[in-house]
Amino acid sequence: MATLTMGKALNLGLNDALARDRRVIVFGEDVGRLGGVFRVTDGLRDEFGEGRVFDTPLAEATIAALALGLAIKGFRPVAEMQFDAFSYPSFQQVTSNIAKYHTRTLGACPMQLVIRIPYGGNIGAIEQHSESPETYYVHTAGLKVVTPATPADAYALLTAAIQDPDPVIFLEPKARYWMRQEVDLPLPPAALDRARIAREGHDATLIAYGPTVQTALAAAEAAEGEGISLEVVDLRSLSPLDLETISDSVHKTRRAVVVHEAPVFMGLGAEIAARLMHDLFDTLAAPVERVGNATIPYPPSRFEKLFVPDVDRVLEAVDRTRAY
Amino acid sequence: MADAMNARQPEGSVPQDDPIAAMLTADGVLTPAAEREAAVSDDRLRELYRLMVICRRLDSEGLNLQRQGELGLWGPYTGHEAAQVGAALAMDSTDWIFPYYRDFAMAVCRGIDPGAILTIFRGLAHGAWDPYEYRFGPFIIPVGTQVPHAVGFAIGCKLDADPIAVLVGFGEGATSTGDWHEAMNFAGVFKAPIVFLCENNQWAISVPMRDQVAGSIAARAAGYGFPGVRVDGSDVLSVHAIVRAAAERARRGGGPYLVELLTYRLGPHTTSDDPTRYRTEADTEPWRQRDPIAHCANRLKARGAFDAAFEQAVGSEAEARAVQMRQTLLNAAVPHPATVFDAVFANPPASLVRERDEFIAALEPEGGRSAANPLPPEGGD
Q1: Which residue of chain B comes nearest to A107, CA vs CA?
Q2: Looking at beta carbons, which residues of chain A come within 8 Å of B140?
């Protein structure tokens, strides 16, 4: 048992994958001698050599395309995008080629690759270092999209993503890189399509993922003091969505609040709310509430606390579902 | 146009001592010495001629099939035969080719059934061959985006220390894309074993070369740290020998090489295009005079390796291949529509399997779907 930050858990996940499978290779901007701007790849180049962990020129489209070409050659590429908004130059490669190559080759060329993207705000940075681009990726058929909320899941989901034969967009909640947890490594790979009940409760369900899981847990803790029992679902996989776990929870609590950093408009909360309305129309005691950003470019850091979901905004949404 | 047809080497595109550039005359064709050195046999040249004739006939049949309503779209490549056949046959069978959407003749040279390829243009599926079987990637539609795939694959070959060269095809329009420049740079930085093959056919749909590229494509390679040459793309012998030399260089660890072939798209961009809106017959005529097939026939005649019997035999074979392609296409079974769910993932999530099952259930008459016949219309007879 060791106390690990999420960043270290990811580092160990990469390390163990590199050690286990000689075809795993890691590349991106500054991932080699620097160890990544968030140090997630720290020490890996020294351990595994420049042939397996290497820096690339600064060009995200070709970093993604390289992963595609190397996957055809039988490698298991793990590519890093330095920041959320820096993944956009690779968008065409990801949506038009990586997501469709398996179909276009009638299944002959699996895209066994992982693209890691640090995402989310709350780090006092500018807008292109604070965005939540998950909806772009979940809306593209052919991709799997996962995001861990804990160090243990960071390790277990990354292990699973690297082993999965399909392309996985691996979203890392950068504000949680420094959160700590006791972890007993090595952990077995996690299922890439299952949500997790992070806390049990019966009055309402908070549905969160990535950076907002901690927020939801803190809200549940605060609510308990007021005699309100909140269940927290950590989605882990954003595509596919584990609607079964979500529905089972909301079936029990009859109230749901979806919490994400991305803008509410057309965010994942929209799909979840629509599904819950469809599947649990007669069960729901209140409309599904959504807590997220306004429809604005991510705000200057001075104001970000007003826009990133916090305990108060989550509890206000819970109150609305209870008062309905 | 005279300028566009001139394959003279652009200033600074190749180092003084580049042996491949030294194979070319000022007009971008093999020097007599290089031709002797390349030693392309009469049989090989006849094979190149034969495949060019076959591929041109397949192109005209593709056009016919589209006009007859059997294909949704066709992208003619007549004019490109020397470029595609010459380059494809220059690669070893263990080498890989990553084509762009017009590289149909390359696919045929690799042994892929042309009638099967046409099922893509008939709208039956998005793919028609296993890239591993033919070492030939899928046709990529978003312009230029296949170029960095090929570089990634080539870097993989280098990491594996495989003696494999990679060829990637693209048009001159692709050289304007960011992906192309990024790929060139990555190839230079990683010294990837790759041959960049620009089929500069002078037109990116309606935009002429002069409005697409300032300076020269071949010269751009120098900025990425490797040589680039301009070759007369009407001369299959020159194309073949230069690409072969560049591939050998790549296999030996010499790194990337750019070959810009000056060629011409004699037909429209696709059957949805109307070239009379942007170019005249007078623009095209000089290029018709440089027909790659006639050019090759002249070379064979000069070697005394061409006669009427050979010409006739090749013509008959081309005709038979066209008939066969048509039949293969028209006999191609329409897959069950639910097959569109099958290859989305290698390991599909349960939710997608459920969507597929719901789709199939809805196709049943009692499922209430109003369309009388949910299947795409059957092909002709």
Answers
A1: B343
A2: 97
B182: which chain A residues are within 8 Å (Cβ-Cβ)? 57, 59, 61-62, 65
Residues of B in contact with A165 (CB under 8 A): 345-347
Rounded CA-CA distance B137/B129 in Å is: 9
| Cα separation, A258 vs A264, whole angstroms | 9
B97 interface with A at CB cutoff 8 Å: no
Helix H or strand E encompassing B369: none
Nearest C-alpha of chain A: how many angstroms from B150? 6
d(CA B77, CA B87): 14
Distance from C-alpha of B254 to C-alpha of B205, rounded to nearest angstrom:
35
Output the average pLDDT for chain A. 97
Q: Alpha carbon of A72 to those of A77, A151, B352: distances in Å?
A: 10, 31, 24
What is the distance between the alpha carbons of residues A92 and A310, in angstroms, rounded to a whole number? 34
Q: Letter for the amino acid at B8?
A: R
Integer distance in angstroms from the first to the last C-alpha of chain B? 45
Q: Give me the helices (H) in B113-176, please.
A: 114-121, 131-134, 146-159
Distances in Å between the Cα of B349 and the Cα atoms of A81, A192, A209, A267, B204 are 25, 9, 19, 21, 41
Q: How far is A6 from chain B (nearest CA, A)?
A: 27
> Which of B126, B182, B342 lies at the smallest CB-CB distance from A59?
B182
Tell me the per-residue pLDDT of A34-71, one tens digit each, with 9 for 90 and over: 999 999 999 999 999 999 999 999 999 999 999 999 99
Name the nearest CA neighbour of B53 among B197, B232, B236, B198: B236
Please give the sequence-ordered ranges of beta strands (E in DSSP) within B123-250, or none if there are none.
166-171, 194-200, 203-204, 207-208, 228-232
User: In this complex, which of A74, A92, A104 lies closest to B145 when CB atoms are compared?
Assistant: A92
Verify whether the Cβ–Cβ distance B138 to A112 is below 8 Å. Answer: no
Residue A202 bears catalytic tag: no
Nearest-CA distance from B194 to chain A in Å? 13
The partner residue sitting opposite A97, judged by closest CB among B140, B189, B351, is B140
Compute the count of residue pairs across chains A and B with CB atoms less than 8 Å apart: 142
Per-residue pLDDT reduced to its tens digit, A220-269: 999 999 999 999 999 999 999 999 999 999 999 999 999 999 999 999 99
Out of A59, A73, A103, name the one closest to residue B126 (CB). Answer: A103
Q: Is A62–B125 a contact, with Cβ atoms under 8 angstroms apart?
A: no
Alpha-carbon gap, residue B205 to B273, rounded angstroms: 8
Please indicate whether, in this complex, the C-beta atoms of B344 and A101 are within 8 angstroms of each other. no
Measured CA to CA, the distance from residue A62 to residue B186 in angstroms comes to: 8
b/e code A189-210 from CB counts within 10 Å (16+ = b): bbebbebbebbebebbbbbbbb
Q: What angle do CA B326, B327, B333 make, to 5 degrees?
A: 110
Q: Name the minimum distance, in Å, from the CA of B31 to any CA of chain A.
A: 36
Please identify which of the residues A102, A129, A260, A278 carries the catalytic annotation.
Answer: A129
- Give me the residues paired with residue B136 across strands: B97
Its ipTM equals 0.96
What is the token pair recorded at B334? Answer: 């329409």
pLDDT at B380: 42
Output the CA torsion A101→A105→A108→A114 (10° steps). Answer: 0
CA B24 to chain CA centroid, Å, is 23
User: Whole-angstrom Cα distance, residue A248 to residue A283?
Assistant: 11
Cβ neighbours of A324 (radius 10 Å): 11
Category of B123 on φ-ψ map: left (φ > 0), alpha (ψ -120 to 50) or beta: left
Residues in A touching B346 (Cβ below 8 Å): 102, 107, 110, 112, 165-166
